[in-house]
């Protein structure tokens, strides 16, 4: 049911998808859907929570590694997120596509947890870029926040064109993004 709801959210958008749409797509009546959930937000939460939590855990473990440098950590972070988008398709794309803050009441514990984890991804990228600048491996004439937004802009736009069946694998996409980013951020 969660997968079906996520497919519809991706196809039609969260706001326009109804529980009746989900029921029809699943070949059920709406009353049966209410057996599983009280509202469509529950489907949304169930669809994205696992992916966001797993990403947060994986990023934390990767950042703690001392055997790789800043640039490699940033590369692995981009690869991890892109692979997650592919592995948990379409769940993570629904999260990006629908701008979670517009769907869930930002005051709910679930929304707060998801926002905190998302901000954690942003802070990790920003910290790695700042560290790269401090080490002299990244140029210092581009604000770190702008460089971080470049990475998230590339990643977050993939919901518009990428599927696991795309011409390029998640790794190929992540590697291309990193090559573009690192070339542009390379210190002269």
Describe this structure in words.
It is a single chain. By secondary structure, the protein is mainly alpha-helical. The protein has a single domain, classed as Tetracycline Repressor, domain 2, CATH 1.10.357.10. Helix content is 73%, strand content 0%. It has helices spanning 2-12, 19-26, 30-36, 40-64, 70-87, 91-97, 100-103, 109-135, 144-157, 170-185. The longest helix is centred in the middle third of the chain and has 27 residues, at 109-135.
Mean of residue pLDDT values: 89
**What is the overall shape?**
elongated
Which architecture does the CATH hierarchy give at level 2?
Answer: Orthogonal Bundle
Quaternary organisation of the protein chains = single chain
> Which H/E pattern describes the elements?
HHHHHHHHHH
Helix content range of the residues, please? over 70%
CATH class: Mainly Alpha
- CA radius of gyration: 18 Å
Work out the helix count.
10
